[in-house]
Structure formats: structure tokens, C-alpha cells
Design a protein that fits this description.
1012 residues; alpha+beta; eight-stranded antiparallel beta sheet; seven-stranded antiparallel beta sheet; 15 helices; 20% helix; 26% strand
């Protein structure tokens, strides 16, 4: 949940929106679009480094501290839950912290329904506890609605098929009797009747036990059932088009009376119910065959679920194993039936799934029959502290970046408000500035940004008695660490802790690169670890806080709401801010040497990256219903998804909220470049043209799939208002460097987590960052090795801004290194910000004629003369205006070029290469670039023997000539050198990018031929 104005009346309206009509099981009056102060989505999960003192007060953690005083509002809800959050748990429930931010949270964290819960969407089944037992729904038909402005949402809404209960049960409340990684056991007590039911993600079975001795088990259908099996202890029936089979203890059977089936259970205390797969089933015979197969596992009651994961660094592989524990009610069978989500079965290894499947809001769930575990194997494609600066240290683009950095140097955080979200977001802004400034040697700007981060973190990480602001407070009853001032329900609803604290941790990781002592346990490292544990405790042994509280292990992604009390289930809006948290763990773990934290981050990152591709982006077109007319969702709900946000109905923000913040840890956004283009096309289509807000976020996202187009858009529209956590410096740096590097190449991995491979035009660039104090060699899966000095980022094979890679432009050369850097040049960067004057509308001049110059001169310096001639006299040179690029990128291929030639030229090849110095002036126009190609016909036979194309020169929007030179050599060259013997030379100059007012080339411009 983000950026929602909050007020008392708004909270009342938000609560009203959340209420559920239990007759229909549907939301009443809920609109997701542009909610002003709607109920917060959330996240949490906390652990504490030091054991709190018995008395309230300040607890020291190294040089930092937190308070155990009540600073502000605590989580609120039904009854006295603020002070007694265990009131809705039984005595059997695990001691210690209570999980929140889960699919079943509203069972324990009662906020609206004070007796039972809201709908619980586990998949393939959904549940709604009531007085008489457990309501069960298997929704297979989505409802696609259009609440406003053509922005759709889809839901597989809860629609009850059957209630599993006990005869005579009338419970005034349901409590939680226990939970494991992705299962939960609600419990009923009503008069003389009791019942429990174990349910969970991926379980087609419901296990009912704890039944009062002698009481009958009951199944009551919501419509007249069709019975197709009544054999021994099992009964099969269809209701609302869905097939179920129930299993009573051996020796007992089922009797039907209207819509109710009952069994005396032969005096036992258990039975199970399973939903059968939807497809392909077209006959009662098939139903009976499946039911008989499921009968083998009907009495293997699930008693636990657990995850284990292991990261194999040499192969960059994350293996995750999902295990189910069972206890046989009868017999010896311990295996069961599991339904796997798409992100799981697409990465499955060593387990076979059947041809049948379940329908779910996440797409088809495939079935593993007769198993207790399965393992997924996912490749980790790496993250970076920041994309590398692969350009040279001079030229127009460097001057532009210097100017952009100068704009923000005085206030790198630009903090909007002092709460945990906005303070974190401000530090995230400053961290990007610090990383970029360090890469290019601007240590002054870097150190200013680092100082702002350090001062802010130290403030928040130090508590004093009675302090109420910029302080973290631990509450032992809830097992949570809340930062005050809170925002977006991070206190009263335990919302969004991973969103907020991810920014803190990421900024701390940047600071730790330059100040390792600050990150030590003696200083503030323990406070950072406390935030990590708060949102996603990685240590199962720390029972004061739930394991991975924020992260839904089986669903593969975060949930944002602490209580999840919505009819549509829990929800998550900004998947990218969830990934910011995961990346922060990787960065912090790597810089501090904490492998447990690092590997937890890699587990969350790799798993959630796949979930996002499937459930937010639907890159394979297998998740969204056919009637859902969007390429993405802004929010994932337990029962579906919405093209919406909590705070805006603008398409740029609906789609952009799953893009920001853009960091070196967000390259997963570009795993599918064609999808990136599709996503951007929808933004443009729904915005009615170019984005008008959050342009920088949208362009940065586009750069992960089409960086050249993103750069063109930035150059043409750089007069925009940056998103609150962004700067022009970072946006330009990100887009410009990706335009040189290309898109992420997921076919190549590395044996180091801070390493990424890019590809452009078939050429690979290898990048690795070393945040340690020891040099290292990184090995890539295609056999490439890259030496990385201590504290540096290195590249190999880079296509740089100037056409080389720092080693003479030789692809595959030793590479370049950047930051943490030595002090920069004493030359101060430009402090003049880019002009905001709109581009000129002056029409371009006509193309200069391409005629042949008089030949036979031995001069090596030529001027761009009249009549298309390369001349030897400066007096004959003339100024020209290039033709526009007509709205497209013309990089590498001449388009309407101005052409100059010289014929009958003779000379001996010298050791140096071609040189040129073009006086280029774009006036106040933005988005212009000039490019040159030089061709040689060594014998004058009409065939061009060598052709050199140079990287284009991006002009600045400040009047006055800039010098475009051959620094770095050609970006592309074909043909070998030879002596000129009555040969010809051709120079072509054109606009690689331009508005309607392209650049001019001055009369003093020269091309120096390498012949004498």
C-alpha cells in the first residue's frame, strides 16, 4: 500500500468497502481504483537481535538501539487484540510470534469478522469458516468486471459448494489450533461439539478431525448434489459443476438426506474430502477412476509443511524443496496429492505431474500424485549494485550526467515526509546518486549522498527514553518492530514492512561498501539485521518471530496486508518494491559476508521473479482470463488480479507501481524483452500517447527491453518532473548505459551473485561487482572469466559510449573497472542544468549535393566543403544543417546523410587511424545525435574496401558548438587497411536521433585521413 492520503473519515469508508455479504460471498461496494485511504495492504515479520528487557525501555544493539515502550498505535482489530493478539488461538497453537501477512491471516488477526474470518484463498480450494463448519469453494469461472474508465479486474470469487461439519456443531467462533509453512488448522468448539480442519496451499484434500466422540460427520451442499459414487466408506458427488469425493473411516458409510450427507464415522473422529481435477473429466467412469486413485491417500493426514532451500554458487542455481509431513489415520500410506502453481511446475525437477490439472487464479495447477515432496530448480541471473558506467570520461553525455548530478548534490534525499516509507524512499534516491557518482569519480557528490544516508540511518537506529519519532519500537506481544512515524498502516495493520524496510536495508548496503565499520555488529549492523528479520526472518531458530512472515512460501511472492481481511483475500500491489527488499538482502549479505542473509535474499528473489513473470505480467499468456484486456495487473489478490492501484487510476502508475524503484537489482524486469515492449505499448495506448507522469519509471522499465527506444524518448522529453524517488541523473545513467550494454542475457550465469551478462546485436558484455576488500575472479557459465579488483565493478567486452571498452575497443579485452574510485579530476563538473527550453521548430536545410572533388591531393586534413567535396582549404569549408531522423533511431545506418567525397587520392598508410573533429551544435533542441561513417576505396575501382562507422554523439541542449571526435575508434569497421593508390574517400554524416530541429555541423569541421 502506498501514497494514500489517510484521514478518519477515509478509514471508515475503507472499512465499509471491505465488508462482506456472506450470503453471496461477494464484496459489497468495494472499488480498488483510486481508493483514498483504503485499508492497507501489508507486510511484516520481525525478529530482534537482543532479548528485550523485562521492563520497558531502550535496548542497545551495538551502537544502535530500539525501544520497548509503546510509542504509537499498535495493531488494531477485534476485541482486545491490540494487547492480546493470541486471543484467537487455542492452547495448542505454537508459542511465540504469530504469523501475519499470509493467505490465512484473517483467521487469527481478526479485524472485521470477529467470529470467523474473511475468505481464505488457498488454491485450488477456498474456504470460509462459519458456525456449522468449514465452507468450501472451488471456483473455476472468473468474473471480469470494469469498475471505471475501462480498467478491469478479474476474480475467481468465493462461491460455496459444500460445508464440512459435525452434526450439532454451532460454534460462536473459530480459532487457530496450529500452522506450518503453508498450512493452517482452524478449530471449532460449539456446545458439546468440536472439530478441526487442516487446509493449505496446494492441497486438494481437507482433513477433518478432532470430532467429538460419537458425533456424525456432515457434508452439506449449497445446491442439490448429483451422486456418482457411493461405495463403502467413500461418496462422490457433483455440486455447482465441481466434483468432490469424501472418505469416512473404513467400515463406515455415508447417508444422504436432501443436500446433506452424514456418516457415523464408526465411532472414529476423522474424515477427509477432496476436490477432483476439472479437466479432462467427462464421464462418471473417469470420476470414479480418479476417486479410487485419490482413495489411496485419503487417510494420510497432512500434519506439516516445510521449505528448505540451497543456493549452489558455482552453477548459480537455487533449489527449493517443498515437503509435506503426514500421519496415517489408518494404514501405512504417507504420500499425498499436491497441486503445483505454474512458477513451481515450470521449474520442477525430478517429479512427474499428471495430465490433469486444477483451475486457479494463478493459472493451471498441475498435480503430483503419491508424493510427499517436490523440488524446483531456478537459475539466478544476478544483480548489481548499479549498472556500470561503460562510457568514457569525457564528451557530451558525461557533461549531461555531471549537470544532472549537480542538480541533486545539495539535497540527494529530497525526502517528502519523515515516516518509514518516505524516509526509506529518500535514502533509496540518495543511494542511487552515491553509486553513480562513485562510478564516474565524482567523490564530492558521492560523499554528500553517503553522509545523508548515514545521518538518517543513525537517527532512526538510535532510541532514547520517551522518543516518539524516527525510532523503532519492538512489541513482544505481536513480535513486531514498528517504525514511527508509521505510514500506510505499517503500525495498526502491520502493512508494507518489506516495502519500507527494503529501502533502509538497501541504503545501508550502499553505505557499508564505503564504511564497513559502520556495518559491523559493534556499530549499526545489528539494527539492519533486525529490520531484515522483522519483514522476513531467515532464522528458523529464532522463535520470537515467524519464519519468512512476509513471504508466502508456496505462492512464491509477498503479501502486503498484515491482516488479509478482504473478501478477495490478501493482496500485493508493488511487487517491485518486494523485489527491492529481496535485492537489499543480497547486497547486504554480500557486503557483510553474511551468507545466510544473502542466500535468503537469493531464494526470495529467484522465486518471486518467476511469480511476477507469471502472475503480474503473464508473459506466457496462461494466467489472465481471456476476457481480461490488459497485459499486466497492478495488484494481485488472493482470488484474482486488478488493473488498479490503491492510490491512482492513471495507467502510468498502475503499471509503474510494479516497476519502481529501478535499481541494479531490478534487471529481472527485462527477462522477457518482448514482453517489456508489450507492457510499454499498453501504457502508451491507455495514456493516449506518451506517458505524462512517472515518465522516468516507464522509460527505465522500457530500457530493460528496448534501451535504444528508451534513450530516444528520454532525449526527446527530458523536461519532465521526476518521480519522488528518482532523479534525472539516475534515469539518464540507467538508460544511457543500457543502450550501450543491451538487455540482460539470462542464458549466461556466473559463480558470483553480483554478476550479470548483457547482450546487444549478438555481442555479450560481462559485468561483475566486487564489494569485498579482496580481488576476485568471476567465472561465467559460457567459460568467460573476469578479474575484478577489490571494491570495483569490472566489465569485459563492453560496448561503450565511445565505441570501445577501455582497452582499445577490442571485444573480449581485459575490461574496465569502476568504483569505489580514486578522487576525481580537480576540474569541477558543470553546474548548469540542462535547458528546459522546448526544441526549436526551425526547418532543416536541404541535403548538400554529393559530387566528386578534384583529386590528386596528398593533404591528410580535409574540410567539409561545398558541392559535397572533401577539400584541403579551411576557407572552402562550410556549415551545414543535417536532415532529421524523422522520429526513429538511425543508429549505425546512414539516413538522409550529407555526403562529401574525395577522389584520385594517393598516400601511404600511417600507424594512426582515422580522426575527425566535427563542430556540432544543436542549439536548445533536445534528443539530437550526430553520427559519421568514413569509407575508403583504396584503388578507385568503385568498391568500398574499408568502412568505419563511429558511435553517435549525443548533443546537449545548450547553444554553442561541441566537438565530436573519433575518441575510442570506430564502433564498427569492416575491411583491412591498404595504401591509397588513386583511391577515393567518402564521409557521410547524418542524424541518428533528432527532433524537427536537427543539429548543424560547423565550417571548421575536419576529417584527418591516416595517409601521408
Amino acid at each position: 500500500m502506498m501514497r494514500r492520503a489517510r484521514d478518519v473519515d477515509g478509514e471508515v469508508r475503507a472499512d465499509q468497502r471491505r465488508r462482506t455479504d456472506r450470503t453471496t460471498g461477494r464484496r459489497t461496494g468495494r472499488r480498488v481504483l483510486a481508493l483514498v485511504a483504503a485499508a492497507a495492504t501489508s507486510v511484516a515479520g520481525l525478529v530482534v537481535i537482543a532479548q528485550p528487557a523485562a521492563a520497558a525501555g531502550v535496548v542497545s544493539v551495538g551502537a544502535g538501539s530500539y525501544t520497548t515502550d509503546q510509542v504509537g498505535p499498535l495493531p488494531s482489530g477485534c476485541g482486545s487484540i491490540s494487547t492480546d493478539p493470541r486471543q484467537f488461538l487455542t492452547e495448542n497453537a505454537p508459542k511465540g510470534a504469530i504469523p501475519t501477512n499470509d493467505w490465512w491471516s484473517s483467521l487469527a488477526y481478526k479485524r472485521l469478522n470477529c467470529a470467523y474470518s474473511e475468505n481464505l484463498h488457498a488454491h485450488p480450494l477456498s474456504f470460509l469458516p462459519g458456525a456449522n463448519g468449514l465452507g468450501i469453494s472451488y471456483s473455476t469461472t472468473p468474473t471480469v468486471t470494469t469498475p471505471a474508465k475501462g480498467l478491469q479486474e478479474y476474480h475467481y470469487a468465493y462461491a460455496q459448494d459444500v460445508t464440512a461439519g459435525v452434526a450439532g456443531l454451532d460454534a460462536p467462533m473459530v480459532k487457530v489450533d496450529g500452522w506450518t509453512d503453508w498450512t493452517v488448522t482452524p478449530a471449532w468448539t460449539g456446545g458439546s461439539r468440536t472439530m478441526k480442519a487442516t487446509i493449505g496451499h496446494g492441497l486438494p484434500f481437507v482433513y477433518v478431525d478432532g470430532i467429538t466422540a460419537g458425533a456424525a460427520g456432515t457434508l452439506t451442499t449449497a445446491a442439490p448434489p448429483k451422486v456418482w459414487r457411493n461405495s463403502g466408506s467413500s461418496i462422490g458427488f457433483t455440486v455447482n459443476g465441481h466434483d468432490y469425493v469424501a472418505f469416512a473411516p473404513s467400515g463406515s458409510g455415508w447417508q444422504q438426506s436432501g443436500n446433506t450427507f452424514s456418516s457415523n464415522l464408526s465411532g472414529k473422529k476423522y474424515y477427509s474430502l477432496a476436490v477432483l481435477p476439472t479437466t479432462p473429466v467427462d464421464s462418471d467412469a473417469q470420476r470414479n477412476t480418479i476417486a479410487s486413485n485419490y482413495a489411496r491417500y485419503a487417510y494420510a493426514k497432512v500434519t506439516g509443511s516445510s521449505l528448505s532451500y540451497a543456493y549452489d554458487e558455482p552453477s548459480a542455481t537455487m533449489k527449493s524443496t517443498y515437503r509435506i509431513a503426514t500421519t496415517p489415520w489408518e494404514g501405512t500410506q504417507r504420500s499425498t496429492v499436491l497441486a503445483l502453481y505454474p512458477h513451481q511446475w515450470k521449474s520442477l525437477t525430478g517429479t512427474t505431474t499428471s495430465s490433469r490439472q486444477y483451475v486457479s487464479p494463478r493459472g493451471p495447477m498441475k498435480i503430483a500424485v503419491g508424493t510427499q515432496s517436490f523440488t524446483t530448480s531456478m537459475k539466478f541471473s544476478g544483480v548489481l549494485p548499479e549498472v556500470p558506467a561503460v562510457g568514457d570520461s569525457t564528451g557530451a553525455d558525461r557533461a549531461t550526467l555531471d549537470a544532472y548530478l549537480a542538480e541533486v548534490k545539495a539535497d540527494p534525499m529530497a525526502m517528502q515526509r519523515a515516516d518509514t516509507y518516505w524516509a526509506g524512499k529518500g535514502m533509496g534516491r540518495a543511494a542511487r546518486i552515491a553509486e553513480i557518482a562513485d562510478q564516474i569519480g565524482d567523490t564530492g557528490t558521492r560523499d554528500t549522498a553517503l553522509a545523508a544516508i548515514k545521518a538518517t540511518l543513525n537517527d532512526w537506529f538510535t532510541a532514547a527514553p520517551g522518543q516518539t519519532e524516527q525510532v523503532f519500537a519492538y512489541n513482544a506481544n505481536w513480535g513486531t518492530l514498528i517504525g514511527y512515524p508509521a505510514s500506510y498502516g505499517s503500525d495498526q495493520e502491520l502493512n508494507d514492512h518489506h516495502f519500507h524496510y527494503g529501502y533502509f536495508i538497501a541504503a545501508a548496503a550502499t553505505l557499508a561498501r564505503f564504511d564497513p565499520q559502520w556495518a559491523s555488529s559493534a556499530k549499526y549492523g545489528g539494527m539492519v539485521d533486525l529490520l531484515i528479520r522483522d519483514a522476513n526472518n531467515y532464522d528458523r531458530g529464532d522463535t520470537r518471530f515467524p519464519y519468512l512472515r512476509d513471504f508466502d512460501i508456496y505462492a512464491g511472492h509477498d503479501w502486503a496486508s498484515g491482516h488479509g481481511a478482504f473478501a478477495a483475500g490478501n493482496n500485493q500491489e508493488s511487487s517491485s518494491e518486494g523485489m527491492n527488499f529481496a535485492n537489499a538482502l543480497i547486497q547486504w549479505g554480500e557486503v557483510t559476508g553474511n551468507r545466510a542473509v544473502r542466500d535468503a535474499g537469493i531464494y526470495i528473489y529467484t522465486t518471486q521473479a518467476q511469480a511476477i513473470q507469471n502472475y503480474w505480467f503473464d508473459v506466457d499468456n496462461t494466467t489472465f482470463p481471456s476476457a481480461f484486456d490488459h497485459s499486466t495487473v497492478g495488484m494481485v489478490w488472493g482470488d484474482g488480479g486488478s488493473y488498479a492501484t490503491w492510490f491512482s487510476d492513471q495507467p502510468e502508475k498502475i503499471q509503474g507501481i510494479n516497476m519502481l524503484p529501478v535499481t541494479g537489482g531490478h534487471l529481472y524486469l527485462g527477462y522477457h524483452p518482448e514482453y517489456v515492449k508489450k507492457n510499454y505499448a499498453e501504457v502508451a495506448q491507455r495514456a493516449g500517447g506518451a506517458p505524462t507522469v512517472w515518465q522516468d519509471i516507464i522509460w527505465e522499465f522500457l530500457a530493460t527491453g528496448d534501451p535504444d527506444q528508451a534513450l530516444r524518448l528520454f532525449r526527446a522529453g527530458s523536461n519532465y518532473s521526476p518521480e519522488e524517488g528518482e532523479t534525472r541523473a539516475h534515469t539518464f545513467h540507467w538508460i544511457r548505459n543500457l543502450a550501450a550494454l543491451g538487455t540482460i542475457d539470462t542464458t549466461v550465469t556466473a559463480d558470483h551473485p553480483l554478476a550479470v551478462t548483457f547482450s546487444k546485436s549478438g555481442k555479450k558484455t560481462y559485468v561483475a561487482s566486487n564489494v569485498t576488500s579482496q580481488a576476485m575472479t568471476v567465472k561465467f557459465s559460457d567459460g568467460t572469466s573476469l578479474s575484478v579488483p577489490a571494491g570495483k565493478t569490472a566489465t569485459r567486452g563492453a560496448i561503450t559510449w565511445s565505441g570501445g571498452n577501455g582497452q582499445g575497443g577490442v571485444p573480449g579485452g581485459p575490461g574496465t573497472t569502476t568504483g569505489p574510485s580514486t578522487p576525481p579530476s580537480t576540474t569541477a563538473p558543470s553546474t548548469t542544468p540542462p535547458s528546459t527550453t522546448p526544441p526549436s521548430t526551425t526547418a532543416p536545410s536541404s541535403t548538400a549535393p554529393s559530387t566528386t572533388a578534384p583529386g590528386g591531393t596528398g593533404s591528410s586534413v580535409r574540410y567539409l566543403g561545398g558541392n559535397g567535396a572533401l577539400v584541403t582549404s579551411a576557407d572552402q569549408g562550410r556549415a551545414v544543417t543535417l536532415n532529421p531522423a524523422d522520429g526513429a533511431t538511425r543508429d549505425g545506418t546512414p539516413y538522409k546523410p550529407l555526403t562529401w567525397t574525395a577522389t584520385g587520392v594517393s598516400g601511404t598508410k600511417q600507424s594512426a587511424g582515422t580522426a575527425f573533429a566535427l563542430a556540432v551544435d544543436s542549439g536548445t533542441a533536445v534528443g539530437n545525435a550526430v553520427q559519421i561513417r568514413v569509407s575508403f576505396d583504396f584503388t578507385g575501382n568503385g568498391s568500398w574496401d574499408r568502412v568505419e562507422t563511429y558511435r553517435y554523439f549525443a548533443t546537449d541542449p545548450v547553444p554553442g558548438a561541441e566537438q565530436y571526435t573519433a575518441t575510442g575508434g570506430p564502433a564498427n569497421a569492416t575491411g583491412d587497411w591498404a595504401d591509397l593508390k588513386n583511391g577515393s574517400v567518402k564521409v557521410e554524416v547524418w542524424s541518428a536521433l533528432s527532433t524537427t530541429a536537427p543539429a548543424s555541423v560547423g565550417a571548421g569541421s575536419t576529417v584527418t585521413l591516416p595517409f601521408r
